[in-house]
Amino acid sequence: MASSSSDAKAAAIQAEAFPDGTTDFVPLRGKKYDLRKHIADQPITAANWYKHVNWLNTTFIIFVPLVGLISSYWIPMRTPTAIFAVAYYYFAGLGITAGYHRLWAHTSYKAALPLKIFLAAAGAAAVEGSARWWSRDHRAHHRYTDTEKDPYSVRKGLLYSHIGWMVMKQNPKRIGRTDITDLNEDPVVVWQHRHYLKSVITMALIVPTAFCGLMFNDWLGGFVYAGILRIFFIQQATFCVNSLAHWLGDQPFDDRNSPRDHVITAFVTLGEGYHNFHHEFPSDFRNAIEWWQYDPTKWFIWTMKQLGLAYDLKKFPHNEIEKGRLQQLQKKLDQKRSTLDWGIPLENLPVVSWDDFVSESKNGKAWVAIAGVIHDVGNFIADHPGGKGLISAAVGKDATAIFNGGVYDHSNAAHNLLSTMRVGVLRGGCEVEIWKRAQSENKDVATVNDSTGQRIVRAGTQVTRVSQPVATADAA
Ligand SMILES: [Zn+2]
Ligand SMILES: [Zn+2]
User: Fold this and answer.
1) Tell me, what's a Pfam family for it (predicted)?
2) From ligand 2's centre to the CA of 301, what distance in Å?
């Protein structure tokens, strides 16, 4: 029989062993199709484009809201219905953020049964798929962020990450594997998944329509505003986590991937806008860590904890969060450092003997030796803040002591500027020898390089700065 052979095929696909312990996603609602020859893997043509469209999703995401929008022209919006619609919007939104996302996808806290049922019902009111399906995709999104296996990779475009991935059919085999054993063992999740259509029609349409009808005698307004249009707004808001939160804002914790923090995204998504933090610390029940940041989902979970309905709220240690923030700051500093001219690295400079240094200086080169490093000050003599005379007098000499307080204790800026004039190091030059010895003994901070390979030169640690100047070599 055909069905038993396709059963066998599905079982064969399922039986493939994966070393990471994950398994293929098995549709619980008994849809049988060959995962190996998926329409999404075939090019879109004029003849097959309609097969690429996921018509069920398109109906719920685009056509139904459109009908609601058009019909709102004839249906007046009454104030009590509008207030209820906004409240129901937050209810459904929390179902997604506190339920689907932070409870089921990330297990960032544990919920008592009544809270689970509440969140599963609220989540159904948002019409974004079952908690099981949603969490599985979201786990793949975190595990394979920005790659081909990310179900809503922003690398495929903002529109794709927002809505394209639902409107167009996707090959379920493309999406990265995730472990959802815990969800399959959660009776609330499994029940909601098996009875998804009933749950959605009840929670997303019947409840708001009946509430507005019975309370304010506004059946039609309840259906259009608290039902259809409210669904549209909550869907678009949560889709923004996949699109906007990977596109707009700062990256205070890591910039290797696309997630970003922005207050606008947070306002739109009930606090899910601190997405750079969230991708770094995904099992933290908070998305915003500062008290003044907008994260009503966090406040909701905290309130549930006070009521005894939520427990084991997970938090990353402050120390780890601050380490991440500091490292990212350091990375930005390093990038900035690499754009500046710090002079030729000492080890790349030619070694010049003292006699050559003196004779080159006599033959017209404006060379000055300071701390064993030779500098060509020719282009700077006229600009020297201390006057031409003092700097000209140092040409052809070891000016270490003069530069470091003998005549004038030069500023940090002067040491930095001097480093850009380096042309060589003296053979046997005193300070450079000390520097080389320290480097070989691996104990000199001045030789530390940053992540871009630039030598870190901190204020006061320039090689030309000598705290107790040695006597000038060419005295007299
Ligand atoms: Zn994300
Ligand atoms: Zn997440």
Assistant:
1) FA_desaturase
2) 16
